[in-house]
Please model this.
Amino acid sequence: MRLERVWLIVRAGSQAAQRQARRCAEELRAYGSHVTVASSGLAANPFPGLLATEPDLPDLAVVLGGDGTVLGAARHLAALEVPILSFNVGGHLGFLTHERSLLRPAADDPEGGLWRRLLDDHFALERRMMLEARIFRAGDGSGSAAAAQTTGAGGSASEAAAPETDADGPHAALNDLYFRPCLDEISPTCLLELEIDGEVVDQYRGDGLIIATPTGSTGYAMAAGGPILHPGIEAIVVNPICPMSLSSRAVVVPPRSRLSIWPLGESNRRVRLWKDGANATLLDPGDRCVVQRGPHPALLLQLEQRPSYYRTLTHKLHWAGSLTSSEASPN
Model:
């Protein structure tokens, strides 16, 4: 692959990530790359500024941080078809990231270093399904949500410099979209009606509803009791959060499904939509949120020659039955 232009996206507030970014920038510039470094975090979104000021899109975005930093990059760069290479530097769980040890100096790498591997195309490219949400407001006579315009790969960054979304979308997510009550003075529960492909499926009364991708099935959805899906599968997980009905269960639907979610109840029962843990917008009863598979997958570089999702699960989720069992495993 080409490395003429590289963006280094660094987790905000992480000294370790900042130090690593300086070393990566020096190495890349030695290869003749034009490098731009930017910090990303809950209070720092570098992408609108980068897209507005950089003359061209990068050949690669290198993320130094945790899963949250990767998710933020994917929401902005997937539609632009910019590949993402991520390392867990200053992050926590790191489901989506490579181990920091793979950033070792070229002198310690038999393949000549990370950047030489990329230049020689010694990597794989994973395409991870994303979700997209659009909001249809009650009483909106147009009957359509706000449209979004994106620029494909090869376009200039300035041409893609429009804001990521407005309040009505589209809202992109790599992990999940979820609905939670937005209430200050009364019990934080909500009533949500779900329609799939034009058919009403259920009304969920409880703490909310999660719509997740296979990538996001090991996140909030898993914590709420949902299934784990291999990222090689394309499907959508619908998972209620603490429902007040024992019959309300997680379901997995085909990737081409069209999901519509309505908040129900009194006018003060507002619901907040979240995308990958970041605020998206507020919905009033009568508003409708339509969720579908996103038109563009996230492009994630994979460095391991024989990657194992099950090894990742075992390591990250501490699946160590043999360590707690009195019987040793033959494996």
Remarks:
- The longest strand covers residues 199-206.
- The mean pLDDT is 88.
- The helical segments are 15-30, 47-53, 67-77, 114-119, 220-223, 309-316, 321-324.
